[in-house]
Design brief:
The complex is a heterodimer of chains A (533) and B (323). Chain A is α+β, with helices and mostly antiparallel strands. Helices cover 30% and strands 23% of the residues of chain A. Chain A is built from 16 helices and 20 strands. In chain A, helix 9 runs antiparallel to helix 11 and helix 15 runs antiparallel to helix 16. The radius of gyration of chain A is 25 Å and the shape is globular. Chain B has 323 residues and is mostly helical. Chain B folds into 2 domains: 71 residues, no CATH class; 237 residues, MetI-like (MetI-like fold), CATH 1.10.3720. Chain B is built from 13 helices and 2 strands. The longest helix of chain B has 36 residues. The radius of gyration of chain B is 24 Å and the shape is globular. Chain B starts with a helix and ends in a 9-residue tail after the last helix. The chains are: A alpha+beta (533), B mainly alpha (323).
Chain lengths: 533, 323
């Protein structure tokens, strides 16, 4: 603390010499005004699974396993973990950690937290799935806990990166409302909640007793500014120091502005096209007709040559550079390079319209057909514009494409009922191939909990088989190879048509630095004054 | 009089009922709230749990009856998103919206009346023509664009005013108001002006038309012939009479100002009901949408009633019991 005052004073003096009022510099050193584009709906860390909520939970609470900026597991409230048996995980907890109210953190708190996950009333999207594999918890000593599972469960550490730990004493009877009111928003994390106004702002102060790296700012004003243009304008006017979800249309301007800095990283969110695999080869797909608008009598998307043609007809580089203003990386798979189980030999499909026309002719569509590409228009960055670009590129190879964009609220329901022939959608992966495979590529199955977002109803027995093995393989290297194999098959078979992985972008006034996170979370502890580095 | 009031209240209840049915069917037709709220990797078991938790597993008509049963007891349901009573959520945000709407209305009268009066009294002067041309802009420029321009000019370029938010508030009568602090006031100016722009133009045009019409009336001519000062003629004889339409329209407009402050609130990140409703519509948070619309309907009915009553005070020819 003393050191930071001194460095702030030094900074103040040097800036005064540069002609800036000292008071302003001081205030800026102490309070960070952040503007985020998506509203936080709850301070209860187990109520609503939503990225903005997770970001704020990460500021107040801690997890057994934290993730670094590249989404790799690092020790959190657990100093180490290992599988001590095929169905037993042991976590060694960090000693001398205290909650904001002074209570000590022990294994009992972990037990309480896991038990609470499935029991949060009225939760619209709960964290219960992370508690389900655990059949029994065993407190070995106050700083050692074992989770027993029914079958080998390699994803335990990854699951634990989603579970924020509560205090068994403080939160014994805490309801979601108590968290939202700030009364119960008490964790072990780097920030304490000072006040919360739903959908407007959350005020934090630094937790000086934090066990990890201390945050650089004494206070944070975390404001929800949902309008894109306003958020940028507030940054330019100095009302905000830091914003997330920078609109691509403002990127060029912010890059030119000497008073602004950007921080960016390739994220984990893939934008892709889902295809109708539900209708058999001899059935009509709802939005596909022949060139005269009559039913085709068959579903061309069941032919892998057609799927491949549609994929290589897309000029991904043009979309990334023009539509996305460079804020995207063309991709042929879910995970970016450098992530666990990224497939090294699957590149983004090359743009090749001639080859695409040949493939179509081979498949029996020398004159193409007509298709409607459905897309949301308020969900992903530039979503409907990407769909329009794809539509034009498809039309160029003879697949005359109409693009229909609508609001997410309507779109997602219809996509989930398989009403579309082709749709544009996105997926934010956990950094593990099993996550997209299980949810998007795997055959829909209620018992296994697979295919939750498999809206095209793709199904491939070989992939399912590999995934089944991978989900119980505790050897990380073998597991990675299995996941790579399954993803390679999905890419070869064009289960979905990957387009690009979004770049996550934050903007800030000059003088701040930020560690950009692949998981899109906007957290105050990742922002520091540039000089303090 | 009491019969009249009673009839108005019964009408109100009917409108509210019809409206709640429309919203229920409307939200149902748009999409499934669970699809939007749930984490995309939630499996089928979790989805079923969420559907049941939000009470969406029943057929629509049963959901509606459950809602109606609770609504009669004053419980409009809990927000799907915030897990708080919908009514409470809205009432928390109401003061911010009311303050903004009041500031806009007062601003519209303070600015609009004198300009309209001037334009009516001196219709051929250059100033009047400029005012009338300006009022056309006020009518036709879209609010979101004007709002962004205001931010770009006064916050980004000139740095005079803060760009967004509500600023510091102070408590008065149990509610928090921003016009009581300098910081709050500076936050209020731009959104209020943005919201008032349309109304200023309206008041200008109404006032001008009223003045021009009234100036030709016999009683005004007589007052002038009697040798009264132009000041007294304008502010006693003319002014009183042109106020009637101005008050009617401003009153009715007040309702729509509150109801449709959505755009201004989201551009200026003003934490009012409008921002809440637009967020709620995006995620199909039905309890909040229903509760909000019910409040708005009740408010419109109340405002219309108040306007009718004020009308009868200002204009003795309008007698309520003759209705």
């Amino acid at each position: 603390m003393r050191k930071s005052i001194r460095s702030a004073a030094v900074a103040a003096v040097s800036l005064m010499a540069a002609g800036l009022p000292a008071g302003q510099v001081w205030a800026q050193e102490q309070t960070l005004n952040m503007g985020v584009g998506s509203p936080v709906t709850s301070l209860d860390p187990h109520y609503h699974q939503l990225s903005p909520n997770n970001a704020v939970s990460d500021m107040i609470f801690d997890k057994l396993v934290n993730t670094d900026a590249a989404a790799r597991n690092i020790p959190g409230l657990a100093e180490s973990w290992r599988a001590v048996g095929p169905t037993t995980w042991e976590f060694k907890l960090r000693p001398n950690v205290r909650f904001h109210n002074g209570n000590a953190f022990t294994a009992e708190d972990v037990v309480f937290t896991i038990q609470r996950l499935p029991n949060v009333p009225n939760s619209p999207s709960s964290y219960a799935a992370y508690a389900r594999p655990i059949v029994r918890m065993e407190v070995v000593d106050p700083l050692t806990i074992r989770f027993h599972t029914a079958a080998p469960y390699p994803l335990m550490p990854l699951d634990m990166t989603n579970v924020r730990i509560l205090d068994s004493e403080t939160h014994a009877n805490a309801a979601t409302e108590d968290f939202n009111a700030g009364r119960a928003a008490i964790g072990t994390g780097p920030w304490r909640v000072v006040s919360h106004r739903n959908g407007d702002r959350i005020e934090f102060e630094r937790n000086d007793a934090y066990w990890g790296d201390k945050p650089a700012f004494a206070r944070v004003n975390y404001r929800m500014v949902t309008n894109d243009a306003t958020r940028t304008a507030s940054l330019l006017s100095g009302d905000l120091d830091f914003i997330d979800q920078v609109p691509t249309s403002d990127l060029a301007r912010l890059r030119r502005d000497p008073n602004m800095a950007l921080s960016e990283t390739v994220g984990l969110r893939l934008i892709f096209l889902g295809l109708d695999h539900l209708r058999a080869a001899n059935e009509n797909s709802p939005f596909i007709t022949d060139n005269e608008g009559r039913p085709l009598g068959r579903n061309p998307l069941q032919d892998v040559r057609v799927r491949r043609a549609l994929s290589i007809a897309i000029d991904r580089k043009a979309i990334a550079e023009r539509v996305m203003e460079g804020a995207a990386t063309p991709s042929g798979q879910f995970l970016p390079p450098g992530t666990f189980s990224h497939v090294p030999d699957v590149a983004a499909p090359e743009y090749n319209p001639d080859q695409a026309r040949r493939l179509l002719a081979e498949a029996g569509y020398p004159n193409g057909f007509r298709i409607t590409l459905n897309s949301p228009n308020d969900r992903y960055i530039n979503d409907s514009r990407i769909a329009q670009a794809v539509g034009q590129m498809w039309t160029r190879i003879g697949v005359r494409t109409a693009v229909e964009a609508q609001t997410w609220a309507t779109f997602v329901g219809r996509a989930g009922r398989q009403e579309y022939s082709s749709h544009l959608i996105g997926w934010g992966s956990n950094p593990d191939g099993s996550h997209p495979l299980r949810n998007i590529i795997a055959t829909v199955s209620r018992e296994r909990g697979w295919g939750a977002s498999n809206r095209g109803r793709y199904s491939n027995a070989e992939i399912d088989g590999i995934l089944t093995q991978a989900l119980v393989e505790l050897d990380e290297e073998k597991r990675e190879q299995m996941l790579i194999r399954a993803q390679r098959i999905a890419a070869e078979q064009v289960a979905v048509i990957p387009l690009h992985i979004q770049t996550n972008i934050w903007a800030m006034r000059r003088g701040l630095t930020h560690t950009p996170r692949v998981d899109e979370l906007t957290r105050a502890q990742d922002v520091r004054p540039a000089a303090a580095r | 009089m009491s019969v009249y009031l009673l009839r108005r209240l019964i009408q109100a209840a009917g409108v509210v009922l019809a409206m709640s049915i429309i919203v229920f069917i409307g939200v149902f037709a748009i999409g499934d709230p669970v699809e939007i709220l749930i984490s995309p990797d939630a499996d089928q078991i979790e989805r079923e749990r969420a559907v049941a938790a939000l009470g969406l597993d029943l057929p629509l008509w049963q959901q509606y009856l459950v809602f109606l049963g609770k609504a009669v007891q004053g419980d409009l349901g809990r927000s799907f998103v915030f897990n708080e009573p919908a009514l409470q959520l809205i009432l928390q945000r109401m003061p911010a919206t009311l303050e903004l709407a009041l500031a806009a209305t007062v601003g519209a009268i303070i600015i609009g009346l004198p300009l309209g009066l001037y334009a009516g009294l001196k219709p051929n002067s250059l100033g009047s023509k400029a005012i009338m041309a300006g009022s056309i802009l006020g009518f036709s420029l879209p609010t979101f664009w004007v709002g962004l321009m205001l931010i770009m000019i006064f916050a980004v370029q000139l740095g005079w005013l803060p760009s967004t938010g509500r600023g510091e508030t102070r408590e008065l009568l149990g509610l928090r108001w921003s016009f009581l602090t300098a910081d709050g006031l500076s936050h209020l100016v731009m959104p209020a002006l943005n919201l008032a722009l349309f109304k200023i133009s309206l008041v200008i045009r109404l006032t001008r038309a009223g003045v021009r019409e009234t100036m030709l009336m016999d009683y005004v001519k007589f007052a002038r012939a009697k040798g009264l000062s132009p000041f007294r003629v304008t502010f006693v004889h003319v002014f009183k009479n042109i106020l009637i339409p101005v008050i009617t329209v401003t009153g009715l407009e007040f309702g729509s100002t509150i109801a449709f402050s959505v755009v201004t609130e989201s551009i200026f990140a003003w934490p009012g009901m409008g921002k809440l409703i637009i967020d709620s519509i995006n995620v199909l948070d039905r309890p909040v949408i229903v509760a909000y619309l019910m409040i708005i309907v009740l408010m419109f009915i109340t405002i219309n009633l108040v306007v009718d009553l004020m009308y009868s005070v200002l204009d003795p020819r309008v007698r309520l019991d003759s209705k």
